[in-house]
Design goal:
The protein has about 230 residues and is an alpha/beta fold. Helices cover about 40% and strands about 20% of the residues. The C terminus is likely disordered. The structure holds iron/sulfur cluster.
Length: about 230
């Protein structure tokens, strides 16, 4: 596994964009063309509420840390966790947990990520949460088995288990993000059903890109038949 330096760290939140569409990530993180639409605006409002230090959510014995900075040198990612809950362990001597300053006993950290809408069919939210857990594990030298995704539309939290398959997916996505970042290349559009859900559709113009690509392919084929070369 790679070990990245401080200056190599990429935004952790970008892994959800990369998992959804590599081009969307490229447009946002390489070209900084974020387009605010209703969905992302709603998401920001929900995040602002979570990041508001006055936002209260009390469960007996659970210590809540909001807007916790995260970093992983193995993934090469850095960001902020919406919420990390520290659950008190029944056995104070349980080595699985971590101690908290000024408090007795040990606690199990559990990341909680807030999202607008409802649970999605793809794994983009789960990979973001798992990347947060890997950061926490690295920072606290411990294992985290699960976390929660909370959805604004359904007002429910769903457990996500950080199994081997999900961890491998996160590592693979993080590696590909770094490869793309180093190449400085925004991937081409591949139009699909997901484009209708994408906040970047008006900037990305996937239909037009497909037509442009067809012309390129046509010209290349014609020139190849004529044994000529052209740069595109
Ligand atoms: S419009 Fe489609 S191809 Fe373009 S960034 Fe969005 S999901 Fe990707």
């Amino acid at each position: 596994m790679s070990v990245y330096q401080e200056e190599d760290l990429l935004l952790l939140s970008g892994i959800q964009h990369f998992a959804f569409c590599e081009r969307q990530w490229g447009l946002i993180h390489l070209e900084q063309q974020w387009q605010e639409n209703l969905k992302t605006a709603e998401g920001h409002i929900l995040h602002e509420r979570v990041h508001d230090p006055d936002y209260k959510e009390s469960r007996v014995g659970v210590v809540s840390a909001r807007s916790l900075s995260l970093k992983s040198y193995s993934l090469g990612l850095a960001g902020v966790a919406d919420l990390v809950e520290f659950i008190p362990l029944s056995d104070e001597n349980d080595s699985a947990g971590v101690p908290l300053s000024g408090r007795k006993g040990r606690y199990q950290p559990v990341p909680v990520e807030y999202k607008r809408g409802k649970p999605k069919k793809d794994d983009r939210d789960a990979v973001q949460l798992c990347a947060q857990a890997i950061c926490l594990e690295e920072m606290m030298s411990m294992q985290i088995e699960y976390g929660y995704l909370f959805y604004g539309q359904t007002q429910h939290r769903f457990e996500v288990v950080f199994d081997h398959k999900l961890r491998q997916r996160v590592e693979s996505l993080a590696k590909s993000m770094h490869d793309s970042y180093e190449a400085g290349y925004t991937p081409m559009a591949r139009k699909g059903v997901k484009c209708g859900l994408c906040s970047m559709e008006n900037i990305c113009l996937p239909k037009m890109m497909r037509k442009t690509r067809s012309v390129e392919v046509y010209l290349k084929e014609m020139l190849s038949e004529a044994n000529l070369e052209i740069e595109m």
